[in-house]
Amino acid sequence: MAEQSLLTDEVLACLGRRDPPSVQKVDAWALQRWQQAAFCASPVHTDKQAARRSRYHGLIAHPTYVTSLCKEHFVKNEPASKPPFKTTGGAHASDEFEFYLPVRPGDVITRNVSIVDIKERRGRHGYVAFVTYESIYTNQRGQTVLKELWTVAHF
To answer: Is residue 79 part of a domain?
Structure first.
């Protein structure tokens, strides 16, 4: 852990910074494979006939599928919004989700990420900085389908 404060002016300047949008189409085959791997048992996710009879009138994606859909870009590319910490460690600290609308095969999902909070705590072993990102997921009609807050600890 860091022995001195991690919140430099350069780091704090990242607050409010946004990454370029990430856009992905919900592929029916990929969605089916993901839902099988995640052991989704609900018929609205796996059974076309049952899903048609449901209040959704067709198959829908499991809510957490959406979060995995657009993160490939984030994992493969260094996020533009990432603060320039001079640390060697980091860890995922938390997730919060708000689900608004179902996502269906064929939907085009856009993910917009921004930094909404940067704070620091001092512990027994030094300083830890916490960066909270907000991801807003919208469909092709501009409707928000999901909001995600996730925090990364840097030490």
So the answer is: yes
Cα–Cα distances in angstroms (integers) from residue 37 to residues 29, 31, 33, 125, in the given order: 12, 10, 6, 39
Return the structure tokens found at 84. Answer: 């320039």
**pLDDT cut 70: percent of the chain above it:** 91
Supply the pLDDT for residue 146. 96
Q: Tell me whether residue 60 is in a domain.
A: no
Rounded to two decimals, the pTM is 0.86
Q: Quick check: 119 and 151 in contact, CB under 8 A?
A: no
Q: For all residues of the chain together, what is the average pLDDT?
A: 88
- Would you state the structure tokens that stand for residue 141, as one six-digit string? 């009609």
User: Domain span at residue 96?
Assistant: 9-25+65-154
Domain count, the chain: 1
